[in-house]
Write a structure and sequence with these properties.
alpha/beta, 2 domains, ten-stranded mixed sheet, four-stranded mixed sheet, 15 helices, 14 strands, about 40% helix, signal-anchor, membrane, golgi apparatus
């Protein structure tokens, strides 16, 4: 009896020792196993990076982030049957919640070449961002996906706030996706523009030739971004138009209080900035730069009618009423070719997609808004900026060629607008553009 009790005691002691040793091993394993999610997000740029154990399973990463959300066999065709769209193929982690929290969504569009500007936009705009992006074929799509992956891993504001929508020419839809995720571990998170320039060297000559012969479909892209916003108001911009700090929250408060009883569009003045300066922190800083010749109204030297009706002199002399947004003045000298960046409810006329490329893209949509009876109100003290003081010498020849092609299409457009709205406030039916 005593021997049996001793054997049971020895067996229990042995089990206790084994369990203790097992728990110690498990604790050591959890303490020293690398955290993959942190390693991926905090990728730096070491001289010769070791193989990242968190990026080994490339097939799972591609299937989880691309094939499920971006099935190239699906998508939808645009109204002209020339482009294939993929809505919300990559959704920001906070994008759905931000659309519920804010009354206004920033809608923007970009080709691959300018996508680096999205970093600064997302850092300035705390609300939801709907971004449509364009790829001209296999190689450009793979580079685009790689660059968006890089942005999402390196820039938390892009990862959280931006929902991406894709447009591809129907005749050039890729059959598969083939990217090397491990390249990201060699990229510098602090240099998105330089990183993109390096990637663009891998665009094929065939794709470059195709893009040289086919204009970028700006209005298609604007409509795609705008219609994927989920808010009452939409703020439509181009990707290189950078909003002033805290603008999303200030606009949200303003739009909650405003009671527009007509068709209203709220214009945000746009300035060009000398690339040597720091982005102005407020309106006073912007005006100091303007007084020194380091900032000026957008396109003032290239095409003054682009923003002239905003009346920048009146805006600059408006006395600030604290930091809250208020209406500086009403646009009373509206003229054709006016292209303001504005906030409006999402019942405004769409951008006409017959105008492709440069010229007559934004101004025709704003012109139809004016004919339809919209009033334009200039807001203060908020603003937007575009980097670089543009000159006519920097204007490429292809822009004028595309502008001439779109000018030929305007005659039919203005007749359709007249029939649709029954008004011709600028007497455009009597004018011949040439």
């Amino acid at each position: 009896m005593v021997q049996r009790a001793c054997r049971l005691w020895n067996l229990s002691a042995t089990c206790l020792i084994v369990l203790t040793a097992y728990n110690i091993l498990l604790t050591l394993k959890f303490m020293y196993t690398p955290d993959c999610s942190k390693n991926i997000i905090q990728v730096q740029n070491p001289p010769e990076p070791p193989r990242n154990p968190c990026l080994n399973n490339i097939d799972v990463f591609e299937k989880g982030d691309f094939s499920v959300k971006l099935d190239l066999r699906l998508g939808r065709l645009d109204n002209t049957l020339k482009y294939k769209y993929f809505d919300n193929f990559w959704v920001g982690e906070s994008y759905p919640e931000l659309n519920e929290r804010y009354t206004v969504c920033l809608a923007t569009q970009s080709s691959l070449e300018r996508l680096y500007s999205l970093v600064e936009v997302a850092n300035h705009w705390s609300g939801p961002i709907s971004a449509s992006v364009f790829a001209a074929g296999d190689d450009e799509l793979n580079l685009l996906l790689l660059y968006i992956t890089y942005l999402r891993q390196c820039q938390s504001n892009v990862r959280n706030r931006v929902s991406f929508h894709l447009a591809i020419p129907k005749s050039r839809v890729p059959r598969s996706i083939d990217i090397d995720i491990e390249q990201i571990s060699t990229m510098d998170c602090n240099r998105p523009e330089v990183t993109l320039k390096q990637m663009l060297k891998h665009v094929s000559s065939e794709t470059t030739r195709w893009k040289g012969k086919n204009a970028y479909p700006q209005n298609h892209m604007r409509n795609l971004a705008r219609k994927n916003c989920q808010t009452k108001f939409v703020y439509l911009t181009d990707v290189d138009i950078i909003p002033s700090y805290r603008q999303a929250d200030e606009l949200h408060r303003f739009l909650q209080k405003t009671d527009c009883r007509t068709k209203c569009a709220y214009v945000i003045p746009t300035y060009e900035l000398d690339e040597r300066v720091v982005f102005p922190s407020n309106k006073s800083d912007l005006l100091r730069l303007a007084n020194k010749g380091l900032a000026r109204p957008f396109h003032q030297k290239v095409f003054i009618f682009n923003q002239f009706a905003t009346n920048f002199s009146k805006w600059e002399n408006t006395i600030n009423q604290g930091s809250d947004i208020h209406i500086s003045h009403t646009v009373t000298n509206f003229e054709f070719l006016y292209e303001p960046f504005y906030v409006a409810m999402d019942d405004a006329p769409p951008h006409d997609e017959r105008f492709v490329g440069y010229g007559y893209t934004r101004n025709t949509q704003v012109y139809e808004m004016f004919v339809a009876g919209y009033d334009f109100f200039v807001l203060s003290p908020i603003f937007t900026c575009h980097w670089g003081l543009s000159t006519k010498r920097s204007k490429p020849a292809w822009r004028e060629q595309q502008n001439n092609e779109n000018r030929k299409k305007f005659d039919n457009f203005k007749h359709e607008v007249f029939v649709k709205h029954g008004r011709d406030p600028l007497n455009m039916m009597l004018r011949k553009l040439g």
